[in-house]
């Protein structure tokens, strides 16, 4: 097939992966990025160790997504093992951590990004930074604002990989929502995901802000799904952390429908309630502090019980155990979208065809977090972004081949 000119708008994981596939197929690829450098959110994600994917069985892996049926063929075509192989081809080895999460051996995003960009450059991919996409001209050209002024360019196909709406300073400001909506694209509102939630604490808990609640489990309302062996952190505004991010979808849905949500925590998930009652039954004249500490309740856990349980109940083993095993926290709101790790919502499934091409904008495809799907942290966000980038790129190739045949 004759080389065609492809524009990719957005230089995050989805956009770079689309460029990878297209340039390998011999296409002429230009990437446009609004920021002075590429992959800013990708680099931020890798600051504490780049969790790029997860090793759990595919059936369980797919269930992590709220649009699992839609994403399934994308992820199966570029699954965790394929991601590890792709990294290996770039000279970056990986390992599976004790939690099943997969990381590059160096743990950081920067070495992988450098090798990735070097590979793309060798294939002729051109990167244009400080190009802010403003939409389409009346003639259908891509319209950019640049340091040198306004620019309009024409391509045979375009992939939009503009991210969601969180961490706007890193590039994903969600401005594309208005642009596409005006073109008739069906879009589900962007909402914060993998975020903290607001709760009201008394001054008594202030010394415990920033301290972790470790080895706990949690669930939302009457939901059957329980997140185990995780942790959370109290903050001045409420609560955040891995367990909270994993439950952000049901918490968000309950707040949106009910006005608030009840989060339940089990402070000691590995201890049966009857065993706990026995441990809390003090012998002799032991103080409440000593009894609780021996049972595994100290620090933030102890403080939370004191926060909500009347003092006259502190020596009642049955009441304390009930709170320990099912501690309720009322959450009233989500943190702002710009402070969320990711966003839910975006371009709806019914707005694109089977190749991720927009139905109202021929030859314009979408990939990454701007699509309407949601997932927890743990490698799932990056996996879906990479996989959808591959899928959109292959969609472009199918479209161009069909056009050549016609």
Description:
- The chain is of the alpha+beta class.
- The chain has 14 helices and 20 strands.
- The strands form five sheets. The protein has a seven-stranded antiparallel β-sheet with strand order 17-16-13-14-15-12-18.
- The radius of gyration is 24 Å and the shape is elongated.
Please write out the topology.
Layout: E1 5-9, H1 13-24, E2 28-32, H2 40-45, E3 53-54, H3 58-63, H4 68-77, H5 80-89, E4 94-96, E5 101-104, H6 110-122, E6 126-128, E7 132-136, E8 142-146, E9 149-153, E10 157-160, H7 176-181, E11 187-193, E12 197-198, E13 212-220, E14 227-234, E15 238-240, H8 242-246, H9 248-258, E16 261-266, H10 273-280, H11 288-295, H12 299-308, H13 317-325, E17 327-331, E18 333-334, E19 342-347, E20 364-366, H14 380-405
Parallel strand pairs: 1-2, 1-10, 2-6, 10-20
Antiparallel strand pairs: 3-5, 4-5, 7-8, 8-9, 11-19, 12-15, 12-18, 13-14, 13-16, 14-15, 16-17
What are the salient characteristics of this protein?
406 residues; 14 helices; alpha+beta; single chain; 7-stranded antiparallel sheet; 5-stranded parallel sheet
Care to give the gist of this entry?
By secondary structure, the protein is an alpha+beta fold. The protein has helices spanning 13-24, 40-45, 58-63, 68-77, 80-89, 110-122, 176-181, 242-246, 248-258, 273-280, 288-295, 299-308, 317-325, 380-405; strands at residues 5-9, 28-32, 53-54, 94-96, 101-104, 126-128, 132-136, 142-146, 149-153, 157-160, 187-193, 197-198, 212-220, 227-234, 238-240, 261-266, 327-331, 333-334, 342-347, 364-366.
